[in-house]
Amino acid sequence: MNNNSSPLVGVALKPLFLRLAIPSVANSLIFTILMVSESAFMAQAGTEAIAALAVVFPLIMLAAMLSGGAFGGAISGATARALGAKDPALATSVLCAAVVIALAGGILMALLALQFGPALYLWAAQSGRIVAAASIYANIVFPAIPLFWLVNCLNSVLRGSGDLRTPAEVSAVMLISYVAFAWLLIPRHQEDVFHSMQMAAWAVVLSYICALLYSLWAILRQSQTIRFARNGLQLKVITALIRQGSLAGSQSIMTITYAMVCTAIFSRFGAEWLAGYGLAVRLEIIMMPVIFGIGATLIPIAGAHIGAGLRQRAITITWRGIAVNAVLVGSIGVLLGWQPQWWCSPLTSTARVEDHCQQALSIIGPTYGLFAVGLTCYIASQAFNTLFYPVFGALLRLLIVASCLFWVTPETDPVLVLWTIASAVCIYGIFIAGGLWSSPWSTRE
C-alpha cells in the first residue's frame, strides 16, 4: 500500500468501488425520492399547485446541478487530487474556497431567479394564477438557496476525501425533515393554492436548514481529516474552481435547455404525444441515480490517483467504471426498448398515450447505454479537469435536437423526431468517449 494521505490509493479496487458506490447510489436515490415526495404532497393541494411547482422546478434542478454537479464536482476532484498528492493544506484551501463559492453562487442565483423568474413562469404557464402561485413559492425558497448550495459544496469536499456515506446521511436528513415539515404545514385538501404554495416553500427551506446543520456538524467534528484553518483561503484555488465549475455548469444549463426543447417539440403534436414521450423519458430519470452514483464514485478514486502521480491507473479505473454504467443502463434500455409495454402499460390507461410511449421507448431506449457513457465521462472529467469533450458533446446533442424547432410542424411524423433524438444521443456518447480516449484519457503510455 502506498504511503499516501488518501485512503483511496494503493488498495484493492473492487472492495473500494463497492464501498463507495453503494452510499453514492443511495444518495442519488434519496434525492430522487425527495423530488417525488414534493410532487406527491403538492398533488393534494390541487392541479394549480402542481402546475406552479412544475414551472419553478427547472430552476430548482438547475441549482442542484450547478452546486452539486458542476461546482460540486470541481470541488470533489480538487479535494481528491490534493489528498492524493499528500497536501492537506491544499485540501483545506479547497474547503474554504467551497464555502465562498457556495455563498457567492447561491446569492447570485437567488438574485437572478427573483429578478427574471416571473417572466420565465409566465412564458411556461401563461396563466396569471399559476404565475402568482409560482412566485409565492420562489420568493420564499430562493432567498434560502445559498443554504442549498452550501450543503452541496460542503458535501462535495467530503466526497472528494472518500467519505460518501456522510453525504447520503445528509440527503436522508433533508428527506426526513422535508416529509415531516410538509406533513405538518401543507394543507391536505384543495384549499387556497397560494397558502399551499407558501407552506410548501417553508417546508423546503426548513429541510435545507436541517441538512445544513448536519453538514456543518460532519465537517467540524474532530475526526474530520479536512478542517478549516486560519489563512486557509487562497485566491488561486477559488479562481481555479470557478473556472472549472463554470465550464461544467454550461453543460448543466444545456441539459435543462435540451429538456425544454424536447418538451416544446412534442407539444406541437398535441397532449397525447407530449404525455407519451414524457412517460418514456421517465425511464431515463429513474436511471439517473445509478449513473450519477457510479460517476460520483469515480471522482474521488481517480482524483486521488492523479494527485499521487498514478494517472494511467486513474484512467484505467475510470474506463472500467464507465463500462459498468454502460452495461447496467444499456441493458435496461435495450430490454425495455425491445418490450416497451413492460414500462408503458402500467403508467397509463389511455391507449393512444401508451402507444406513443411505446414508440418513443422502442427508438430511444436502446441508446441509453451511450447516454450513460457520455454522462459518466462528464462526471469523471471533474477529477481529470478534462471537460472540453463532454461540454462540446452536450452542445452537439442540443444543436441536433434544437434543429427540429425549424423543420418540425404538427404534420411532421413524430417518429422522425424520435430518430433525431436517438441519433443525437448516440453522437453525444460516441463523440465524448472517442475524444477522451484519443487524447486526454488515452490508455497508451
What would your notes on this structure say?
The protein has about 450 residues and is mainly α. The protein has two domains: about 15-235, no CATH class; about 250-445, no CATH class. Helices cover about 80% and strands about 0% of the residues. It has 16 helices and no strands. The protein has helices at about 15-45, 45-85, 90-125, 130-140, 145-160, 165-185, 195-220, 235-265, 270-305, 310-340, 340-345, 350-365, 370-385, 390-400, 405, 415-440. Helix 12 packs parallel to helix 16 and helix 13 (about 370-385) packs parallel to helix 16 (about 415-440). The longest helix has about 40 residues, at about 45-85. The radius of gyration is 22 Å and the shape is globular. The two termini are about 25 Å apart. The relative contact order is 0.12. The model has no long low-confidence stretch (mean pLDDT about 90).
Question: TL;DR?
Answer:
Helices cover 82% and strands 0% of the residues.
Topology:
Blueprint: H1 13-43, H2 47-84, H3 88-125, H4 128-141, H5 145-160, H6 165-185, H7 193-220, H8 235-267, H9 271-307, H10 311-338, H11 341-344, H12 351-364, H13 368-384, H14 388-402, H15 404-407, H16 414-438
Helix pairs in contact: 1-6, 1-9, 2-3, 2-4, 2-5, 2-7, 2-8, 2-9, 2-13, 3-4, 3-5, 3-8, 4-7, 5-6, 5-7, 6-7, 8-14, 9-10, 9-12, 9-13, 10-12, 10-13, 12-16, 13-14, 13-16, 14-16
